[in-house]
Amino acid sequence: MSAVLADMPETVAPATTKAIAPSKGGRPWTFYVLATLFALYVLALYGPMFCIYILSFQDIRGGLVFPMKGQSLHWFVDLFTQVRTGDVKGSFDRSIKLAVIVTIITVVVSFLAGLGFRKRFRGDTVVFYTMIGSLVAPGLVLGLGTGLLFQALGLNASWYTSALGAQLSWTLPFGVLVMFAVMSRFNHVWEEAAYDLGASRWQSIRLVMIPVLAPGLVAVALFGFTLSHDEFARSLQTAGSLNTLPLEIWSMTLNVTSPSLYALGTVTTIVSFIVIGASLGSIVLIQKKRGSNAKG
Amino acid sequence: MTRRCKRSDFEAFADMQPGPSSAPSLAQTTSRANLAGWLYVSPLVLVLVPFFVAPILVVLAASFFATDGFGGLTPGFTLASYVEVLHSALTLKLYLATIKFTLLTWVFTLIIGFFVAYFLVFHVRNQLLAIGLFLLCTVPFWTSNIIRMISWIPLLGKEGLINQALLATGVIRQPLEVLLFSDLAVVIAYVHQLTIFMIVPIFNSMARIDKKLIEAAIDAGASRFDIMRLIVVPMSKSGIALGTIFVVSIVMGDFFVVKVMSGGGSASVVSAFYEDVGVLQYPTAAASAVLLTLVLVAIVSLILRTVDIRQEITR
């Protein structure tokens, strides 16, 4: 998805003629069947989410199901002020901070690994499959292992040490895989040209590769942030005494039965949408700037 | 960690020739390339070793330890935990339940994912619209999974929308209880969350199929079914394999969806692991985790035999 994201206008131009379905003119019956399936899929994808957003705006009489009882912001206020629902504000802050740190590390490390994997080197397969292992391993098991490891070493588990590492073991494989897709579309001629013009390796990376790959790096950042912000299984045994937001939501699902839970869902979704919007917006902006530069 | 990778990339640049065009002896280039490669991936390795390799080894070691039953571990070597896990009738039940959830989820995500991707690639004629619809499918992936799961409560609950609608239309007289907190709800939640992991890789491989190939097949008299069977499915195989790895490993490693959506009625291997950890039965939990990891590794390597994902992604 990142590849598509990162290269939107590039893929658009040549593909328009190609993508036209073989049948011109009238649509075959399969079109209508599949269009219906697609519509149902999107409805099932978004429908439930919109239900809880709507239900989170009920007033104090509100329950967990329809019909809607009144309209107010009561449950949002309740969420951030009531002690009974736990430390939502604190965990919210921690999750955002953690996600920012994870994002920065993920972008830098994935970019470097992407550069490294461009050429074969002795042992690259071992590193690659270790990374795939890190991606598919059950998160809870890894989290427990990390927790026990910290315990054995006499270190305190906390969200900015053990949970940070545990989350990176999940975001980095994603980041590197996205970098693979992004790098595969990088034309090596540009890099060679930079060397021919006397650029050092660092200059060619800073002045040629990073600007060219910028949309892809934004996609990696988007993955890093959202995967970290939502990470649960690996953080459970590694976050120490202070919860991150998904852990807070987990404990809420077990003991809170009020629309507060839905209000929290609405708030986290707003955060997600701001991040998605900012990422997609900056990708489009970069591409647009590039387009106008090319013309001018 | 940021500091560490800054240092290593500095070294990577400092240690290298200015350009790849300058070519000393072959042996020298290879060793230089090896060094450069390792320097570039060293930050990645510095994360994976302490936070993936070491924890796995710790779990492996813990599975051989003895326990006092209160969370204390006695270093040693005993297979008691494995014997306990393998002898328990519960283990078989847990694996059967996990396999049932995995298979059901895999079948549904594959069917929906395949046809959604097929629709986007072959039926949407406007490329910009196709990308827009594709993004529409991916946006929820970037929002909280937990929230998306609990969002089924107002729909599936005893007083939820589906029951209300069915009661209102007179299809049923009593509200259906099996909708929420049941195996059905677990599978619905999985399919809801994981279909995207099928759509994306299948979409990617289908988008690479040359449309001329299909036109040629039509000209040669192939039926719609033949095109599907002989061209589209074989050429989407790598996407299907990648999607399968994601779906299978996530479902088999999950405990959260099973716990919440089944209302505690069902269990999976990892949810039992979670309960074991909760009562400090570390060696038994670790033994069960090691077995699960072995099963998972076997499945993933079987799938990887059919597709070289590294080549697949870089192509």
Compact description:
The complex is a heterodimer of chains A (296) and B (315). Chain A has 296 residues and is mainly α. Chain A has 13 helices and no strands.
What keywords describe this structure?
A: 296 residues; mainly alpha; MetI-like fold; B: mainly alpha; two-stranded antiparallel sheet; disordered N terminus; transmembrane helix (chain A); ABC transporter permease subunit (chain A)
Structure description:
The complex is a heterodimer of chains A (296) and B (315). Chain A is mainly alpha-helical. Chain A is 74% helix and 0% strand. Chain A has 13 helices and no strands. Chain A has helices at 2-6, 8-19, 29-55, 74-81, 88-116, 124-136, 139-152, 162-183, 188-196, 201-230, 233-236, 245-255, 260-295. The longest helix of chain A is centred in the last third of the chain and has 36 residues, at 260-295. Chain A is globular. The two termini of chain A are 31 Å apart. With 315 residues, chain B is mainly α. Chain B has 2 domains: 1-12 and 25-50, no CATH class; 80-314, MetI-like (MetI-like fold, Orthogonal Bundle). Chain B is 74% helix and 1% strand. Chain B has helices at residues 2-14, 26-63, 80-87, 89-123, 127-138, 145-150, 153-156, 161-168, 183-207, 211-219, 224-235, 237-253, 256-261, 269-278, 282-306, 309-314, and strands at 66-67, 73-74. Chain B has a two-stranded antiparallel sheet with strand order 1-2. In chain B, helix 4 (89-123) crosses helix 9 and helix 9 runs antiparallel to helix 12. Residues 1-24 of chain B have low confidence and may be disordered. Chains A and B meet through helix 1, helix 2, helix 3, helix 5 and helix 6 of A and helix 1, helix 2, helix 4, helix 5 and helix 6 of B.
The biggest beta sheet of chain A, please? none
Q: SSE order of chain B in H/E notation? A: HHEEHHHHHHHHHHHHHH
Mean pLDDT of chain B: 83
Would you count the extended β strands of chain B for me?
2
* Anisotropy-based shape of chain A: globular
Biggest interface and which pair forms it?
A-B, 115 and 117 residues
Here the CATH topology of the largest domain in chain B equals MetI-like fold
Poorly predicted tracts of residues of chain A:
1-23
Provide the β-strand percentage band of chain B: under 5%
- The quaternary state of the protein chains shown equals heterodimer
What is the assigned CATH homologous superfamily of the largest domain in chain B?
MetI-like
CATH topology of chain A: MetI-like fold
What characterizes the major β-sheet of chain B?
2 strands, antiparallel
Q: Which CATH class of chain A applies here?
A: Mainly Alpha
N- and C-termini, Cα separation of chain B: 31 Å
**Integer-rounded radius of gyration of chain A:** 23 Å
